[in-house]
Design goal:
Strand order of the largest sheet of chain A: 1-8-3-6
Largest sheet of chain A: 4 strands, antiparallel
Distance between the termini of chain A: 47 Å
Oligomer: homodimer
Number of helices of chain A: 9
Helix content of chain A: 40-55%
Order of helices and strands of chain A: HHEEEEEEHEEHHHHHH
CATH superfamily of the largest domain in chain A: Jelly Rolls
CATH topology of the largest domain in chain A: Jelly Rolls
Shape of chain A: elongated
Strand content of chain A: 15-25%
Largest interface: A-B, 22 and 22 residues
Number of domains of chain A: 2
DNA sequence: TAAACTTAGGGACATTTGTCCTTTATTTTA
DNA sequence: TAAAATAAAGGACAAATGTCCCTAAGTTTA
């Protein structure tokens, strides 16, 4: 079946459910947004955002998982986030400041995204105050997510972070490489190997 | 001289300068905000935000320096930020969600703050679209500051962080205790002592 | 299918950091 | 001002982590 020929609305149900957890939105109000979204399919390894390119879109993950990473001053790839399940993904700093993205966002498996451009989103803000509210809450959420991330970096050991990953995103442990998981935890592969051994002995 | 009896406007000049770096604002527009601010003086050791209390204000630092800290799961105080110079301070998560603050914000020396309540700020949003813009940019800035913080946590060694502190906030090295600086760097006092020795031999 | 390549696990040793403790200098209090 | 309390520096050893390997298993390519 060629999914591209089906009406877009059929693919936007998860998004509607997701938004209704944030703010009550009628079918009518939601309907206004449909023309501004489009489907984007990525194969494993392809990029939603390239490093050093300006990020001009926000994506909602309909299916699949992605990782975000950057290159540090030792030229290592550092994984900063595993994105799976139904949520928004963007390189937020690049998106709001329209500067080149330090982050790359890459598909870890085939993914289906619902994508809206910055221009489209701003038009939605103009035509609908509920979308303005959604935009503000989205921004606040980005702050809260980042604060949580910083708190985890500050307070949890690599082992605790690994256990959290097992708990919250067990699928990622299958889909990501040892290198990616280790850099996400902030340790070397060798230490990750020790952590896994410790956990298997618990 | 009793500073309390002088007109508030005399104390708000630094704030005006600070805002004009963000957005052009006329004297008239700025004047509208004056009634919503008040001066708050804190002695060394006193708190602007208490842990577990809801934060209902934002402060602009007119004079002095503060630190933000929280208690981690090992019951250690962890310093997360040293605030000095002219900038805004608040426990942002608590402020936007109106939940008890994990952070405490404490004066490291006598400080003079310009304080606006959440209600006052929201009223300013209503009466002036430029203040709405300021509010949004403030929120985006909080995101960017937190992202920067996370990036430093992720990418810099304790020694690099110490050198950055020497560079960017040298006054803090005098005002904060060894414990505070060490927990800010994410190491023990012992390691900070080694870092200082290393740097003095450079 | 065999050879080449990639990936994960783990051994051996070096380096870094933490823990515990003592010494010294500085500040506070009686 | 002397005694007590607090704060910072650093020694000695233990624990954790990194570096540099090698091996084995799985995957890709000729």
């Amino acid at each position: 079946m060629n999914t591209q020929s089906l009406p877009l609305v059929l693919f936007m149900d998860k998004l509607k459910q997701f938004l209704r957890q944030i703010v009550p939105i009628s079918d009518e109000e939601f309907g206004k947004a449909i023309p501004y979204f489009e489907i984007k399919n990525l194969k494993k390894g392809e990029y939603f955002v390239h490093q050093n390119k300006i990020c001009r879109q926000i994506a909602f993950i309909n299916k699949g998982s992605l990782k975000t990473y950057y290159i540090n001053h030792k030229s290592d790839e550092v994984t900063s986030c595993f994105c799976s399940g139904h949520c928004f993904v963007t390189s937020y700093k690049s998106f709001i400041k329209q500067v080149p993205s330090e982050l790359a966002i890459q598909a870890m498996e085939d993914v289906e995204l619902l994508v809206i451009s910055r221009e489209g989103l701003y038009k939605l803000y103009d035509i609908s105050s509920i979308w303005q509210t959604i935009g503000r809450i989205l921004a606040e959420n980005e702050y809260l997510v980042m604060e949580k991330y910083a708190s985890v970096l500050n307070n949890e050991s690599a082992k605790e972070k690994y256990l959290r990953l097992m708990e919250e995103q067990p699928d990622i442990l299958q889909k990501a490489s040892v290198e990616d998981i280790a850099s996400y935890l902030g340790v070397t592969r060798r230490t990750l190997s020790r952590i896994r051994k410790e956990i298997s002995n618990m």
